[in-house]
Amino acid sequence: MVLRSSLCISMLVAASPAPAAEDFIEGVYLQSEELCAQAKKDTLQTVIEAGNLVLSSRGLESIEYNCEFLEITKATRSPSWAVTAICQEPGYLFPDVLSVTQMNAKQVDLVSVRPVEDESEASGNSGSYFLCDGVALP
Q: How many CB atoms within 10 Å of residue 7?
């Protein structure tokens, strides 16, 4: 009976989601300070509906596109985290691995391992994101 109970407890622990990494980003981030100002003036939903990416501790969000952060691991030698994500857009689902680096109190940089297939496209999930004080997720 003790063996069966330990096995059940072990299975429950293995099935539980991993806790968020220590000191991971908090708040809402957009790809420019101008977009932050627009989100404050209008609404964050207006900025999202214009096709802009929003970064939060949950992942990346936009119209018909999102990346859910599944696992977040803090680096020991830099203010960075390694993030595994599942991203989706209509008709297409794919994994991504990103580094998130705290550049300063207001800026984080994301780098995705996923190559951009078309050079005319934006840089995918990679880029700089700026903390938007006073802006909350819808």
A: 10
